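JOB MANIFEST
job_type = single_chain_structure
chain_count = 1
residues = 466
[input]
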Amino acid sequence: MDNSIRELRLFELENGPLIHVEVNMEELPLFLFKSRDRVEESLEVRNTILTTNGQRLQQYVKVTGGRELGLPGPADRDVYVATMRHVHQGGGMPPDGRVSFTIYGLLRLMSKNPKAGKNHERVRESLHRIATADIYAENAFYNMEGEVFESQRFSPWRVTFRRVKHRGNRAERHILKFDEVLVRSYNANYLKSLDSDFYFSLHNSLAKTLYGLVDVRRKGTLRWTVEIQQLRQLIPLPDIYYQPSKIKERLDAAHRELVRRGFLTRVDFEERRAGVHLVHYGISPRFVRERTTAVSDLSPRDLAVVESLIETGMWPQVARKLVREQGPDHLLTLLDALPYQQGIENPPAWIRRYAENNWPVPLPGLHSMEANSSRPSVSAPEPSRDLIARQVKARLEAGEFDKTIQDFEKLPYEDYKTFVGASYPIADALGNRFYLSLDGDLYLYVGGVEEHNRFRIHTLQRAVDV
């Protein structure tokens, strides 16, 4: 599958169809799929995820509806999306989370008749229903600032309806007050883009739900795989759709519309052992490309490194942050070294750990890569060993290797011991290559990675390893 298209930056068009929505609210199963006889007072979802540092995290979400109005449903999600488009068009989330609005304006954003009294009442009821929903997210609310999952209990917003005099007439001046946790997350830029025009153009309510869910869960890639019972909880469907065949049947119309409208390229069902049923979604590169701005603060080379980091399983937000903060060069070295590492259970965590510490990295594959190189050799006079030694000494005295020496001396023993006496070179963040002897002598490779290319620069002073 083509994975070259990523959602790299959000649109900044003030009145365009692409809007900013807070990611946690897109991932939490707040808007259930309602049937006429559905009477649940609450819904629960459990999940296990692998975090960026390799830990397994148990998540639990419970959404409880208000006593009078119950749980939010598809019509309420429409109002929520219209509200977030209104926030977007107003320049984003205010620091205090207070947003003024009119029901008339929300109805226009949903392309509904703003003069129909019934529509006004339905929107008011939806705003109240969302306001009275109680969300408890245990290890399931991501804090972008701290880069951790938190446990939070909150309601999305409080709503105040009021009419004021304006030029002798009574006019709407309603207020939404978003909960503090959403304000903080929104302003920390934990956002994604949602094509509100495309959303409101969908006829099937489940298609709307799936569009938002798949688009956020794909994490910037062009595919998403989910266990079918987990998908049922995330939508969520009533318990009568517990059997996989019933779930597939209920989703069929939504899948067909999303494929026909160009968001999905394919939907595949797979049955594995022990009764595990998977759903594989393929997302259209063209759909993503047409909704991705060409303007980016990353260069084409930076973007290529971001793509490679995402392919290892790293979250797109983390990959972009690493490239912006660390630059592409050391990350490219880490990516080149990754296939030759032994016992790496979590490649993204390994790359992030080495990148953020700017640690030297082993390059076991370098010899084989150079041996298989098809580039023609070019003969040129080699400088004398004495001249190279003087140049290395000058670089050493200028402090060029100070940071790398300190890193070798402070590396955790489990990492350090893999370098000692290794037959392959070790690269630092600047691209220099080294050899570490059994006695702790550090050598710099110059002009090649053979033994005669080594020049001693320092004897490491490490604390006694226990």
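[summary]
The CA atoms of residues 225 and 280 lie 4 Å apart.
Residues 1-15, 368-380 have pLDDT under 50 and may be disordered.
exit_status = 0
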